[in-house]
Amino acid sequence: MQTGFFQKIKLFSQASPTSLQQISHAAKKRLYKKGTIILDRYQSQQTFLYVINGWIKLFRESSDGEEVIVDMLTQNHHCGATFLFESKEEDTYMAKSISEIEIFTLPTTLLKRLVASDHNLSLCLMHSILQKQKSLSVHIEHLSIQNAMQRIGCFLLRLRSDIQFQKNIKLRLPYDKVLLASRLGMRPETFSRALSKLSRKCDLHVDNELIAISCPLKLIQYVCQHCSQIFPCNLEG
Amino acid sequence: MQTGFFQKIKLFSQASPTSLQQISHAAKKRLYKKGTIILDRYQSQQTFLYVINGWIKLFRESSDGEEVIVDMLTQNHHCGATFLFESKEEDTYMAKSISEIEIFTLPTTLLKRLVASDHNLSLCLMHSILQKQKSLSVHIEHLSIQNAMQRIGCFLLRLRSDIQFQKNIKLRLPYDKVLLASRLGMRPETFSRALSKLSRKCDLHVDNELIAISCPLKLIQYVCQHCSQIFPCNLEG
DNA sequence: CGAAACCTTGACAATGTTCAATCACTGTGG
DNA sequence: CCACAGTGATTGAACATTGTCAAGGTTTCG
Questions:
Q1: What is the pLDDT of residue A1?
Q2: Fewest C-beta in 10 Å: which of A7, A145, A172, B1?
Q3: Nearest CB to B130; choose among A81, A116, A229
Q4: CB A15, CB A6: distance < 8 Å
């Protein structure tokens, strides 16, 4: 792969020429169709994964056999930084493509070496981790404050950054409702009922995975009322 | 303050002598009694705060005037790293002592300079941030999977790391129940009822803020049953 | 075509919240 | 020193929200 490609990625934009060269040498770009297991738990430990395009589900099984969503990644998200310093088996996860995806991977060992030697690269990585941390904090606040309808509305609002200045927004849910329900901490049945209740309350038009928001401000007002953030909260850079 | 003090702190253990010197020069050690406002929102932006001892509440107000807990800090926790790269007003918080506390602070600007120049220091900081990130992920899993009784039990279990090998553990709640309830994402009334229900179910003995766990394994079994982590999950340090 | 997954709906159970009342405890000012 | 206000904590009753179970429709894909 070409160094220019990586230089355009914020995370690597400050990396030294040597680092960029090593990265572009070692990176493996891959395309997968929907529904493919990308990493098993063992591989997750050894792989830094960067999403160029599409959606990926990171998950584990709980002790009673249920699937637990660890994270959902999309464009410009990455995973694997956890294993730069510690490599505990309990932290591992599986990765599965939820749509067609385009990604690249790097061996954790290489990234570890680069981060140890390339100060600017490590600072970019730290910046990115801090952004992620903020989004986790916001997620926690939402889970403890918002009800099912609000969590769904909040998710919709975050799908588009320009949403507050538009009218009659049209969205497509990026992945299926069962998964989305789980991501938002509720049962599929609750999701189904809450979405239809929300659409009555805030003038949405729902047609399977297509959703039209006729008046974003109305939705924002209902969704964000108890939150400590100001509306376009936590839109990642 | 003495450089030796900071060298013993994991976060600064790999810092260069020059960094350590600058840190020890600029650090302000402080004692506060319970109930003191340590930082207002403006100060939080300019201050890196490290807890030597005691408990601190970080919080904000939501748009409808409710207090939102951002984080609870204790021994060896810190806050302020967020502002090393970005300084958004919405990310600021207030800090209040919940017990007698001993802390030290550094100006964000200094830490920023040091992190920019001292590679090993920045790696230590990154490590610490990644640990924090893991604990946030676990928190999210707990909020979406556990019920009120389990969240309370889980909190108790994390108060002592050796808990699984003991019998008849005696604990003291580190801060009041209203705050703890909010931290665990429930109402004080729910907390009160859930704690008494839990104590019946898992043989706890509750006497105000004192709690005795006669059989930790029984509690672990009930609390951790749906979790993707293995028991002594996410014990920091 | 048929199996499997996804999605929705109804009836009901479990869980959590709200509101109001009460009690204990703490610190303050008269 | 006591009265009193304020906070923390608990409890009951009514209510709201979410989860569970079962059934049936729809979509997807080999």
A1: 84
A2: A172
A3: A81
A4: yes
